[in-house]
What we know:
Blueprint lengths: L1 H7 L4 H14 L2 H8 L1 H4 L2 H23 L5 H27 L16 H29 L9 H14 L11 H27 L9 H27 L1
Amino acid sequence: MTKKKTIKNQSFLVPMWVFILTIFEKLSLFALIGFLLPKLRRKYWFVDSWVIGNLLLSIISVYLVYLQIVPHYLSYCLMIYGFIRVFEIFIYQLNVLLVHPFRHENPASYSLVGYRRMTIALVHNFFEIVFWFATTYVVFQFSFDTSLENLNPFILIYFSFLTMVSYTSNLDNNSWTLLATIVLHFQALIGLFMTLLSLARFISLLPRPGTLDISEQEQDMKEHISRIEQKLEEVRRQMIK
Length: 241
């Protein structure tokens, strides 16, 4: 009877968002490549090249659009691709935080290739978002009546970075169109998530330097012993199975 009540009283909030985020992750460009080329997706060099390549493309796109080297329709294509990439990064980071670790029976058994590698990749993603939004603002200044008119790409990159880290700007808000305002707030929300949640989480996982304080050394030793006990418990469970 108690089990039935527990099942009926379970919260649906977590399963609902796990389902939604899993679906969104499968709709990403990277998931499409993984579906078409499954062996390639498992190669770390390909994942690293995907991260670095998209960052370089986002930087180049700002100047391609600003200097009008590419046709007008291709500028829009780059902008749309940028939005797809921003959405992909956002969904992936949410999955890393809220979904991937809990797919295993024991969340403690979930492991990354490396904390440092993940943090470096996250920094790449952060600046990629900055440049993709800068590309969007360049397109806007050629296509919309906004306060971004006649600004050079360096100022637009600075404006994009400022929006990511502070949710403020020195530009005239009264001359923004509704679409430009939506994009601005969308970037600010993405920046808030990337800055406060993801980056803070992975930086906190990097190794701490040693300490000469005895009490702090004792605390570090207790934490180390606790991790060893968890590993031994995992080994014991695997042996039982």
